[in-house]
Amino acid sequence: MLQQSGHHTNPSMIAVDALAAIDAGRRRRRNIFRVQVALVWLVLIGLLVAALVVTKKIDPAFIATWAPFILGGTGDTILISIVSIAFATVLALLGAIGRLSRNPIAYGVASLYVSLVRGTPLIVQIIFIYLALPQLGIVIPLLPSGILALSFNYGAYMTEIFRAGIQAVPPGQREAAEALGMPEPLVMRRIVLPQAVRIVIPAIGNEFIAMIKDSALVSIIGVTELLWRAQSVGGRHFRTLETLILAATVYWALTITFSLIQERLERRLAKADR
Amino acid sequence: MSDSRPAVQVSGLHKWFGQLHVLRGVDLEVRRGEAVMLIGRSGSGKTTLLRCINFLEEPTMGRVEVDGVVVDANPLGTRSRHHRQQIRQIRLRAGMLFQEFNLFPHMTVLQNLIEAPVRVLGITRDEAVSRAEAQLARVGLSDKRDEHPSRLSGGQKQRTAIARALCMEPMVLMFDEPTSALDPELIGEVLKVMEDLAHEGTTMIVVTHEMHFAREAADRVVFMDEGSIIEQGPPDRLLNEPQDERTQHFLRRFLASGQSAAD
What we know:
The complex is a heterodimer of chains A (about 270) and B (about 260).
Chain A: H1 11-54, H2 60-71, H3 73-99, H4 104-118, H5 122-132, H6 142-168, H7 171-179, H8 184-214, H9 226-237, H10 240-273
Chain B: E1 8-17, E2 20-30, E3 35-39, H1 46-53, E4 61-66, E5 69-72, H2 81-93, E6 94-97, H3 109-121, H4 125-138, H5 154-166, E7 172-176, H6 184-199, E8 204-207, H7 211-217, E9 220-225, E10 228-233, H8 235-240, H9 245-256
Parallel strand pairs in B: 3-8, 3-9, 6-7, 7-8
Antiparallel strand pairs in B: 1-2, 1-4, 4-5, 9-10
Helix pairs in contact in B: 3-4, 3-5, 4-5, 5-6
C-alpha cells in the first residue's frame, strides 16, 4: 500500500494515503469478521434443525399444518405491543412531570404509581386486572386487560426514563424561556418536553422491543396472541416442541427487525441534530 | 413624566447561597437610555446581581423595581401566585442574554424569535414574524431566518439571541458575559451589535470583561468586589483614574494579564 503511493513527493500526502490504506484494511477485516460470524450462526442453526428433523424429534408436516394458525397470533402480539407502548408513553410523560413536581399531590400520586408497579411482578398485575378487579365490579374484557396491564407496567418504568430525559435538557433552556416571560407550563410544553422526547426516543425503542417479548405474558389470561396459540396447539397434540420453536422464531424475528428499524431511526435523529 | 422614573432600581439586595454571602446589600439605579457595565473579578457577584434582577435567582433580601414593577425578595413565598406574576411582569420588561446563548435547538431562528411574542404577548403570528424579520435585519442575520441554531456560529447565535430578546420589546436588556463563550474572532460582531444598541439609547446592563467595549459603549461603569459595589462613574474616569484601591488593583491586574490585547 505504502509503495503504491510512492509517486507522492509531499510527505503529508503519503501520510494521508497510508492512513486511508490502514482504514480500508480495518474495514475489510471487520467485514470479513461479520461474514464469518453470520456463517457460524447459519451452521449452528442448520445443525440444530437438521438434527431435530433427521432424528424425527420434530414433525415438519405438523408444523406446516398448524403454522398459519399460530403465526396468526403475530398480529395480536404486534397490536398489543404498539398500543401498550403508546399508552405507556403517555403515562410515563405524566408520571415524569409528577415526579418532578413540587406539588405534593402530583408527586405523591406519581411516586406511588411508580413504586407500586415496579414493586410487584408484571404477571401478578396482568392476572389482577383480569381476574381480581371483577370482584370490585370492574370488568375489563380480555384484550384490553392485557393492554392495560402492560401499559401500566411499562409506563412506570418509562416514567424514570422520561424523568431522566427532562433533567437532561440543559437548565439554560428553561432559564432562557423563563427570562422571556414564559409561564412554567408553557416552558415545559414548548421548550423542555420537545427536547426531552428527542433524548428518550432511543430508550423508548428499547422498551418497545422488551414489550414485544413481555407481551407473551398476557397469554396467561387467554389473550390469543402468539404464545397462547402455540401453547394451545402444542398442548392439544403433544407437540409443544414444534409450536414453541415456531413462536420463539417469530419473537426473535420481530425483535431483530425492530432493533434494525430503531438503529436507523437513531442514526437519522443523530444526523438531524447536527 | 414617566421618563424620570428609573428603568431599574435595586435596593438593599442580599443573596446568600447557603453560607455564602454573595451579594452584600447592593443598591443600583439605572436610568432610561443608560448603558451600565458591571466589571469585577469572577465571583464578585456581578452575574448574581443580574440574575437577581429578573429573579432567575430569588434574592434573599431587598427590593427590585423594573419600569415601575416592584418585587420584594420573598425567598419563602416563591410559590405564591402573586409573587410569580410580579416576577413575570419584571421578566417581560427586562430581556436577558446569556453566556451560552440558550437558543432553542428544536426551533428555527424565526421560531425562536416569534415563540414568546405569540404565546406570551399574544400578538398575531404575522405581526410577530414582521417584528422578527426587522430584528434579524438589525443584527444582520436575515438570511439565517429558517436555519436551526446548530447551523450558526457562536457569534451568529448570540446575535440571534439578542434579536430574540428585542422581539419582546423590553424596557431594559441585561447581558451576562455575552462574549465569554465565543472564539476571539467572533467577539467583535456581537460587541458591534451591542454598541449600536447602546448608541441608539437602549437601556442596558452588561456584565463584561471587555474593557475596550466598556470604554466605547458605557455611560457608566460599575466596579463590584466581594458582593458590593465599590465604585462607579463614567468610563473615562473609572477606568483611567479609579479612586478606590481595589478598583486600581483590579484594573492593574486586568491590564497586566494581557486581556486588553484582545481589544
